[in-house]
Structures are given as C-alpha cells and as structure tokens.
Amino acid sequence: MYQFTEWPAEPDRIGRYRFFEQLYDGEHEKAFERKIYKPRSQAGGDGLTWLEFDYPRIIVDVATNLLVSEPPVISYADKTLNEALKRVTNRSRFSAILMEVAQGSAMRGDGVFVVRNSARGVVIEPQPAYSYYPELDPDNCREVLSEQLAWTRDFEGRQVLRVDRYENGQIVREAYWFRRMAVGARIAGTVLSRVLGGDEVIPTGLKDRNTIVHVPNQRKDNDFFGKSDLGGGLPSLFGEINWRASQISKILDRHADPKMSGPKIKLPPGMENLDLSQSNYFAVGKDDPAPTYLIWDAQLISATEHYKRLETEILRHSETAAVLAGKIEGARFDSARAYRIQLAPTLAKNSRKRTHLDPAVKETLRIAVAMELGIRFEDVPDPSVRWRDGLPKDTAEASQTENNRIASKTSSRLSSIRRLDDCDEPTALEELERIAHEQEKFGAVEMPPTTPESDTTPEPEDESEIDE
C-alpha cells in the first residue's frame, strides 16, 4: 500500500508539474527564480522593461487544439452499448473533459481520467496529475500495484491530508492530520465522518476494475510518467528569449530618450555642484566640443538576429509549425494537402501523443459504459474512436476523393459518408436509407465525374495550334 509520510509526496515530480504550470500561466519570474536561467534580478541596471513571452502557452494550446478541439467520433455498433455511451458522454460533456485532460497532459506530462457515480448518474471527470500517486512494482515500472488520489485541505482550523484509494469495486477514503509538510496520525471515528462528509467506502459497482485511468503525454521505455511538451531544453530557450527581448527594449528606450546640450547655466546658490548631465543636459563652453554618442548599431542588429534565431529554435524543438504560431503572415494555400504539409511537425507530434491518448480514452469509456449498464468491465468491448486532425476541411477536395474511391471500388458508400460527414455508423446508415428512398421516389440522378482542374488541360483543335 502506498504510504504518505511527507507532503508533497514525490517532490521532484510535483516540482516539475509546478514549474511547467508556471511557464504555461506566464509566471516566468516565479518559474525561473531558483533556476540557472537569468532572472530579472540579474538585469544589472535601472529601468529594465521585463518582457515575458507566452511561447509555452502557444506550444501547448496549438497542439491540443489540433488534437482534440474537433472531438473524435465515438460509437458502438451495438445499439444498447451505443445508447449507454451517448448518455455518459452527453452527461459528462466529454468533449470538454477530453480537452482539459489533453491540455493538462501536454503541459505537465501526465493527465488523469476518473469515472464516478454522481447524483446525475455515471460521469467522467478530469483530475490534476499532481494529485495522482500510483504504487509501482520496484522490478517493473509499468506494473501498477495501486492507485491513489491525494490532496490537502482545511478542516476546522487545521489541515488534513485526504486520500482516496481506488480499488476494484470500491473507493476507500482516508484522512490524516497534516502540519508543516509532515503527515501525522490517521483520522478515525466520528472525526473522520465529519472530514469525509459521507461514507468511508464508496462502492463503484465495477467488481473487476478500478475507475481511474492515467494518460501519459509522451514517455520513454524506462518511465511510467510522461514528458511535458515544455520539457527538455525548452525552458532555457524561454528564459533566454525573455532576457534578450528585455535587453533590446532597454536599449531602444535609451536611444529614444532625448538629450540636450547648450551653454553653461549659472546655477542658484547652493546648487553650484549639481551635475546637469544626470538630467540629460550637457553644458558646453564656447570652445568646448559638443558631446557625441557611441551607438552600437552592429550589436543591436546582432541581438535582434539572435532573438529571431531563438524564436526559430523554440518552434523547431517544440515541433510547432511556424504557420500555426503566426510566423508566416498572409500565407495562402492552394489545397488542403499543401496546408497539411506546412503543419507536418505538429501533426507528427500529435500522432505520437495519440498512441497514449487513444487507449486511455477507450479504457475510460469502457469503464463508464460498464458502470452505466451494471455489467463487468471485461464484457464491454473497445468503442470505435475515429480521431480528427482539427484542420478545416476542403469539402470539394474531400468529395472528389470519395467519388473517385467509390468509382474505383476501393471504398463503400457507407464508409465515404462517415468520412465526409464525420458521423458514426448508425447515422451513416440512416443517410443511406434516405438516399435510397429518394432514388425510389424521384429516380436516380447521375452526377458527372469530377477531376481536379490542374489535371485537365484543353486539347488543341488541330496541329497548327501546336506549331503556333
């Protein structure tokens, strides 16, 4: 059993989560306060305009939007399972839950789904990864022995550590006294009842599975926990680009600050020793040379180029397509295919992330459907989940492709309708039935085959046109 002896447990992992979350929220000064990257305190001069760029938010949100902002099409062929699935997903607002878990997973490196019974019925909810504490087999990091959610809160003027242990068929709820990062005695009796506000053991109705699912973002073969999209060498680039942009801003402020030179001024009594140069006034005599400036144009140009290189490296290391970050202004693409080529880095990253997200989503939905119907987890098959890439669809190009596939007998009309309308199989079958009914009533209408304009070239009427 996982034992909580101090809080936070696993401080290294929780510290990483906090660091990445501060980057995402734009709190870069807090994030870099104790890091090796240059903080604001090292500015070494007055009047520094400190700038912070939300590249971490762009990196996380752009990839997440393409991954799940256009929800996947989820369905069962079996009518009973499909109706139960629709009830659970509608009740849970699963599209929003999926977005939140995918966003948290990209930001921290891990996400968590929890399925529970509520007053409204079975619902799916997200949980932050810093509340998730699995007990792992010391000989196999992928073997989970137990799973817990833990957090601290106030109770009657004192702090308590709450722990929910997710077991097959039930959730065991516990509470411990907590003070100054040390976990004290376990709370029992009537005090525990007041802390919990309910029963100590909550049945889930699912005897062969617990109701919590871990979602790693991307991970190595020797890790259980995932890797954040903001990890690796990216934090050093975030810190450096903030620093360089702030330094450039400081230099430009100094160049824009007007200075004045003029004749020596007779100062009032008691102010003879006042240095007017501190007030941006340079007093010169009749035969004295006028003051001049030393301007480092080459260094400023170099600093600007360095900033641009940093920006390019941030996008490259995070696999963020430049067009999605607004780096290609006024870009126009002749086809959806050309647009997809520009987005190849981000789409490839999302494909890797989907290898972990897809089985986690299917497992979560199986748990929810089993609880909704009151059957065993093993008796519920995986639902059909068809992911979409979040890109605007070129309907003309897609229709042309589907017409060509049907004509060449490489696809059925049912599958083509599902792809074109992004619908499940029952909806596509209903559409086919309506089409058949209209054909019986009004007769079949043959549409001419469509071909790309780029592939059709007018043929000359005779050879004289070729010679000309």
How would you describe this protein?
There is one protein chain. The model is unreliable at 452-458 and 460-468 (pLDDT under 50). This protein has helices spanning 11-24, 28-31, 55-69, 79-92, 94-108, 189-196, 234-256, 297-317, 336-342, 344-373, 395-407, 413-421, 425-442, 463-467; strands spanning 73-75, 110-118, 121-127, 132-137, 140-155, 158-167, 170-179, 182-186, 201-203, 212-216, 260-263, 281-284, 384-386. The chain has 14 helices and 13 strands. It starts with 10 loop residues before the first helix and ends with a helix. With 468 residues, the protein is an alpha+beta fold.
Question: What is the H-and-E element order?
Answer: HHHEHHEEEEEEEHEEHEEHHHEHHHH
The class by helix and strand makeup works out as alpha+beta
Main pleated-sheet profile:
6 strands, antiparallel
Q: What Rg is obtained from the alpha carbons, in whole angstroms?
A: 32 Å
Uncertain parts = 452-458, 460-468
What value does the average pLDDT take?
A: 84
Number of domains: 2
Q: Count the strands?
A: 13
Distance between the termini: 88 Å
Shape: flat
Give a quick summary of the entry.
The protein is an alpha+beta fold and 468 residues long.
